[in-house]
Specification:
Blueprint lengths: L1 H14 L5 E2 L19 H8 L4 H5 L6 H12 L12 H10 L9 H8 L2 H14 L10 E2 L2 H14 L37 H4 L7 H5 L1
Parallel strand pairs: 1-2
């Protein structure tokens, strides 16, 4: 009976929480099937598919929106943690300069769309869309990094054996639409460079796309 009472109490508390929305175009779940991307990107997509990043790029869980909201609201009131909603574009730009980039990147869009050849522009866009959050407008009713939170919440629900109501609203985790994915114009670059050997090491030697590359 004690276990049942605790579960009921948890459900009652969750029902009274404010429901947050998932940001629709951020922290996306990626499709790393290279056949769905422009030909110029396929070697890099294969590198991502066999890289240690593959799980982080594709993992997401189906969880009730109310529990996802509770986790995000609890995080927002915890001291000493970095809130991604408070990281500005200027801070991201400064990070690129610290990494050694030379050039004008007054706007992140300029860096993403025009500076890199497609083979490098594409993966940067994918990593940016999958891992980051854009800072724009009010974020008070939005869930930052909802995809990552869904994994945490799913494990918590499983660990504590929380009963989920059948009529629970399930959070919709955004998925990258590869059909509308765009890259920079390859004809504007006279030098593209080669994929680093360290990136090739994880790809099987019989991989058709990489052998053609």
């Amino acid at each position: 009976m004690a276990g049942s009472s605790e579960t009921t109490s948890f459900a009652d508390q969750s029902a009274s929480l404010m429901m947050l929305n998932v940001k629709p175009h951020q922290n996306l779940t990626l499709d790393i099937d290279s056949s769905r991307y422009p030909e110029a990107l396929r070697p890099m997509i294969e590198c991502l598919r066999f890289s240690p990043l593959a799980q982080a790029l594709t993992m997401a869980e189906s969880v009730p929106l109310v529990h996802l909201s509770k986790a995000r609201l609890g995080f927002a009131t915890t001291e000493g943690l970095v809130d991604l909603d408070l990281i500005s574009s200027s801070a991201l730009i400064e990070m690129f300069y610290q990494m050694g980039f030379i050039g004008d990147i007054s706007f992140l869009s300029k860096f993403k769309k025009s500076i890199l050849p497609p083979m490098w522009n594409g993966p940067f866009m994918l990593l940016f869309k999958s891992f980051s959050e854009r800072v724009a407008g009010s974020t008070s009713a939005k869930i930052s990094c909802a995809r990552f939170w869904s994994v945490i919440v799913k494990r918590a629900l499983t660990h504590f054996q929380v009963l989920v109501a059948e009529d629970s609203v399930i959070a919709v985790i955004p998925f990258l639409q590869t059909s509308s994915f765009e890259t920079s114009d390859p004809t504007k670059f006279i030098f593209v460079g080669s994929i680093l050997e360290a990136m090739l090491l994880n790809v099987p030697t019989d991989n058709v796309i990489m052998n053609e590359y």
